[in-house]
Write a structure and sequence with these properties.
Layout (H helix, E strand, L loop, with lengths): L2 E2 L15 E2 L13 E5 L2 E4 H15 L3 H4 L3 E2 H24 L4 H16 L8 H20 L8 E2 L3 H13 L2 E3 L6 E2 L18 H17 L3 H12 L6 E2 L26
Parallel strand pairs: 1-6
Antiparallel strand pairs: 2-8, 3-4, 3-7, 5-9
Keywords: Signal
Protein name: SurA N-terminal domain-containing protein
Length: about 270
C-alpha cells in the first residue's frame, strides 16, 4: 500500500497537503440544519464535529509540539471540519474510481495512531482527523501517479491539486457558513491570513487576531507564538484548547513558634 507522510501537527493543518481553506468565505448554498458540511450527499453533523474536536484537543494536549501554543475553540473546530470534509472527499473519490477505500483508510489511520501514540484498536474520533490528509493524498496518488511503486512515499505535487480542483468543480461540497470553506483551488500561500475587515464580532475579532499572530509566527516572529499561548490560555476551557498546566503541591512551611508567656526562661 502506498504511504503518504502522516500529519505532524495541527498548526499546519490550515493548509492541506493538496489544497487549502478559503479564509472566511461563506458558502452560496445552505446546508441542512444540524449539519457542519455535506459532501456528495454524505452529512457531517455538528455533533460529530464536537466529538472529534474534544478528542483532538485531548490528543494535542499530550504534546507541546503538536499543540503549538494552543487553539481557540472556533479555530480548532474549523480545522476539524476541514479534516472531516477531506475524509469524505477521499471516500467519494475512491468510490468513483473503484479503489479500496477501506484498505487505504485503515493504513492512514494506522500511521496516525503510531505517530500520535494511540492504541492500535483505539476508535478515538481524533484518529479520523489526524489521518485525513494522508488518506486523501494516498487515494489521489492512485489516480494521478499510477507509476508510483507500492513502497514509495507519496509526494503530492501540482497534479494532485489540479485533480482536486477539477473534482470539486464537478461535485457537491457544502460547508456550514459558520466555518471556513474548503476550496482546493486556493493556494497554500494565500491561506495564511483571512480578510480581517469582517471582524465584526468578538469571535471574529479573536479569530482575526489569532490569524495575524500565526502569520507572524510563520515568518519567524518568536514572540508571536508566546502571544498565541497567552491568549488561548486566558480563554475559558469551553472556548479553547490550551496546554494543560500541571498542578503542583505547595511546599510545606515551618510553623511560626508562638511565644509562651508562662515560660520564665523566655525573655
Amino acid at each position: 500500500m502506498r504511504l503518504s507522510r502522516p500529519l505532524v501537527g495541527l498548526a499546519t493543518v490550515a493548509v492541506l497537503a493538496t489544497g487549502a481553506l478559503s479564509g472566511c468565505g461563506v458558502a452560496d448554498a445552505g446546508v441542512r440544519p444540524g449539519a457542519a458540511a455535506v459532501v456528495e450527499g454524505e452529512e457531517i453533523s455538528l455533533g460529530e464535529v464536537d466529538d472529534a474536536t474534544t478528542a483532538t484537543c485531548e490528543v494535542l494536549q499530550g504534546s507541546a509540539d503538536l499543540l503549538a501554543g494552543g487553539f481557540t475553540g472556533a479555530e480548532l473546530r474549523g480545522i476539524v471540519v476541514q479534516q472531516l470534509v477531506v475524509t469524505e472527499v477521499a471516500e467519494a473519490i475512491a468510490a468513483d474510481n473503484d479503489l479500496p477505500a477501506d484498505e487505504v483508510r485503515r493504513e492512514a489511520e494506522k500511521q496516525a495512531r503510531i505517530s500520535f501514540g494511540l492504541a492500535g484498536d483505539d476508535q478515538n474520533a481524533a484518529v479520523t482527523v489526524f489521518a485525513a490528509s494522508s488518506f486523501l493524498t494516498s487515494v489521489v496518488s492512485e489516480i494521478v501517479d499510477p507509476t508510483l511503486s507500492e513502497d514509495e512515499l507519496v509526494q503530492p505535487g501540482p497534479a494532485y491539486q489540479a485533480y482536486l480542483e477539477q473534482w470539486q468543480a464537478e461535485h457537491d461540497v457544502e460547508v456550514n457558513p459558520r466555518f471556513d470553506q474548503v476550496d482546493f483551488a486556493t493556494s497554500a500561500s494565500d491561506s495564511t491570513t483571512s480578510d480581517l475587515s469582517v471582524a465584526v464580532s468578538q469571535a471574529a475579532s479573536l479569530r482575526a487576531e489569532i490569524d495575524e499572530l500565526r502569520a507572524r509566527a510563520q515568518q519567524g516572529d518568536v514572540g508571536a507564538q508566546a502571544e498565541i499561548t497567552a491568549l488561548v490560555s486566558g480563554l475559558p476551557d469551553s472556548q479553547g484548547c490550551a496546554p494543560e498546566v500541571a498542578e503542583t503541591e505547595p511546599e510545606p512551611t515551618m510553623p511560626i513558634p508562638l511565644e509562651n508567656p508562662g515560660n520564665p526562661n523566655q525573655g
